[in-house]
Sequence to fold (266 residues):
Amino acid sequence: MKTEIRQKFIVGNWKMHTTSFEAQQLAKGIVDGLAAPDHVTVVLCPPFPYLPIVGDMLRGSRVALGAQNVYPETEGAFTGEVSPNMLLDLDCKYVIVGHSERRHKLGESEAFINRKVKCALDSGLDVILCVGETLEQRQGGRTEAVLDHQLSTGLDGVSSDMLSHLSVAYEPVWAIGNDEHHATPQQAHDTHVLIRRKLTQILGATWSEELSVHYGGSVEPGNAAAFLGQDGIDGVLIGGASLKADEFLAIVNAGICETEAEMQTA
Ligand SMILES: O=C[C@H](O)COP(=O)(O)O
Fold:
């Protein structure tokens, strides 16, 4: 049985997928099919160019708009970058920071990710900070040390009055979009325990209990309930399965069922 009930999050990260038409249709399919009650937060993170189109589709619905990245300055000579204010101007509420694809494919450093976390929070965005170890790090027994470092540096200097706008997503790099290696719900749970312990050290017990910690890595309709049913997993960050409205909605429904089951046993 879960020890507490935190708001469930179901976040779709479309990564660098869809055309403008597909983005519009996908958002429409999700809005039309959604029956999420208040205790489930649903967020869609389309590519930057499609934020306005998707934002239009989400207006008046229960689905929030999020971005996949942000630059840690409010404005200036930063060719090709997008500021927190621009995201807010497009009605974004959330932003993903420190996704493993940006850490490993685009070389983002811990210090840069920390600047993004603080700038986005200070600007008024809600931040989803991603952390996770590579397969090599896991096999080398370094998972806990890697997560400790990512959390300590990522959250360095974040003031406590901003913490209600922060959540953490655990995404083992080896389990993302990977047909060969999948994390089991038990592995995800065990690592969430490590993360919660580290959050307690950094933020104190009260904030650690308040903060939502999500799981991401090959979540799909068939396994979503097993992940969402784990004690300490408060939501899921979905890549591939968020690109089909029916699959994404099935995962949202798994979140609704898990939360209602928890409410009955609380
Ligand atoms: O942001 C989402 C994660 O990278 C998970 O992606 P995936 O569901 O395709 O494994």
